DNA sequence: TTGTAAGCGTTATCAA
DNA sequence: TTGATAACGCTTACAA
C-alpha cells in the first residue's frame, strides 16, 4: 500500500497492474472506453479488496461539480419551515446531492460564516428560504458565487423563485367562513415586511372585495410566533365589538390565538371561528382541533430543489414556479362553525 | 485575469507582483512569516480588488481538513429532534465548520447515499443522532471513515456518546406525581428497542421501587408519534380500572395522549394527571397546558459537537458525556394535580 | 524577505 | 486497449 492513508486510485491501479488512467475510467464506468473484460475484473477486484473509496474533493477539484447543495433556511424552530427543509433535502438526496445546512440569520450577520459557506468549490448551488425581503445582500453574495433558487420570495428578485399560492390559500379560508355566514372576518397577519404574509393578506382582501365586503377588512399583525398570536387576540379583545371569524396566517401563531381565546373564555367556534393557513401534526391536539388550509410545503421544498438541480445540470429550467399540485386544500376540524346569532 | 473563471491565488499573486507562495502565507496570516508591510498591503489590495475567494476544495485537498461536519439525524418531523439538530448546528457554525445534513434512515437503506455522504475528504467527523440501536452497521461504516460521536445511544457502542440524564428525568416526574399523592402511575414508553425509552423506563421503575411501589409498575409502549399516544390511551381506557397518573416518554406522544383523554371525556388533571418528558413550544397550547420535565436538548446537540470538534482538532476529549447542566427541570403547567379521592 | 517546486487524488488529453 | 502526463488551486519545505 502507500503511506498509511486510505488507498488511492493509484494504489488500486498498482495493485491491478494497470495505470491510474484506466482504473479511473473503469471505476467510473466511462462508456467511451473499451477494456478487456479481464482487466476490468482485475481493477474492480483490486478496488474491492483494498476498500477503495474515491476522494470526493480531488474529484470535484478536477471536474467542476461539488455534488453538494446549500440549504439556507430560517426559523427552524417552526415545523412549517422544517417541512420545506425536509422536502428540499429529500429531493437533493434523491438526485445524489448532499446538502449543507445554514441559517439565513447567521450568514447575514456573520461574514466569516458566509464566506466559509460559500467557499469556492464547495457548493453547486443554493436554495434560499427567504420571505422577509431583508436579505438582498445575502442573495447578492450567494448568487454572485453559485446559482440560487428562492423559496417564498416575491418575484421581483434576482433569482428564480418557487412559491405556493398564498393568495389562493387565504381566499379559500375566506370563502369557507363566508359560506358559514360570517361577515366580520379579521386577518391575523405575519410580521410587517414579510412577503409571504403580504400575499396572504392580499388574498384575504380581494376575497372580501369580491363579496362586496371590502370595507370590512381588518388586519392585525403578529410575527409568526405563538406568543404574538396571543397578543394579537388580546388586542382584538380590547375592542368594543368582536369579529366572528379569524383567519390566522400561520399555524404556530394560531396555536397562540386559540390559547388566548381559551384564557379569555371565548368559545371556539360558538363565539368565534378560527381557521389557519398551514396544516401540521399538532393542529388536532390544540385546545380546539384547528381547521386549516393545507399548503404543499414539502412539495415546495422539493420543487425548489428540482429547479436548482435542473439549472446546475444545464437543463433549461430557471423559471419562477408556482406549486399548484396539490393546491390549497381545506382541512375541516372543529374550530369553525356558523357565526353566533346577531344581536339586534 | 486568467481564463474567465473566478480569480485564483495565482491571479492575486500576479496582480500584486509576488509569488503565489507569499500570497498564500499573507492571506492566511501565517505567523511564521515576516513580510514587508508594503508587500502585505499590495497582496491584500489585489485580493480585495479581484474579489478573491479561496478554493476550499483545493485547500482541503492539500491540507487535511474539510472544515465540515456531518449531522446524521432521524425523525426531523419531531420538534424534539430538531432541537438537538439546532444545538449541534449552532456549535459547529460557531467553530467555523459547515454542516452536512443527512437522515439516518436514508443512509442506512441506500448504500449509494451513504457513500456520497462519506466520500473521502468531504467530512472531518460525524454526529450520529441515534437511539434505536438498529444502526450498528451505519455506525460501523461511518466510524471506519471519520471520527464519530453518538447522541442518545447506550454507552456500549463503539464511539463516544453524549446523553442527557433520561433516568433522572422520569425519576423527577415520578417524584412530582408521588408528592401529589398518586400511587397508580402508568408509564407510556417509546417504541421497543429504543435505548432512550429504556433508560426512561428504568428511571420510572427505580423511582417506584424506592417508594416501595415496585409492584405497581405499569408500562405501555407507544412509538414517539402523537397517534401512538392516542392508541396507548385507548388501550388503557379499556381496562377495568384507570391509573391516576400518566408519565409520557415524549412530548409529541403526550399531545396524542391528551387528545385521546379529551375525546373520552376524561378530565385532566381532575380524573388523571399527565406529565411528559421534554418541554417544547407547543405544550402550553394543547387541550390542557401540559406539565413537563425539561431536558436540555440544544445543549445536548452542542455538547456532541464540542466533543467531536475537540477530537478532530486533536485535543484529547472523546469521553462519554452526560449533560447535567442544566439538569432535568420541572415545568409546571395545568395537567397535574392531586389524584381523585379514592372510591372506598 | 521572497521565490521555486513538489505534491494532494482525480480526470482528460493525448500518444502508443 | 492502455499508458504517460498535464492540469485543477492550494500549501509548504526548501532554496535563494
UniProtKB/TrEMBL annotation, chains A, B:
Keywords, in A-Z order: DNA-binding, Transcription, Transcription regulation
Organism listed in the record: Brachybacterium sacelli
Lineage: Bacteria, Bacillati, Actinomycetota, Actinomycetes, Micrococcales
Positions of the HTH lacI-type domain: 7-63
Protein name: LacI family transcriptional regulator
PANTHER family the record matches: LACI-RELATED TRANSCRIPTIONAL REPRESSOR (PTHR30146), LACTOSE OPERON REPRESSOR (PTHR30146:SF153)
Domain of life of the native organism: Bacteria
Pfam families, per the entry: LacI, Peripla_BP_3
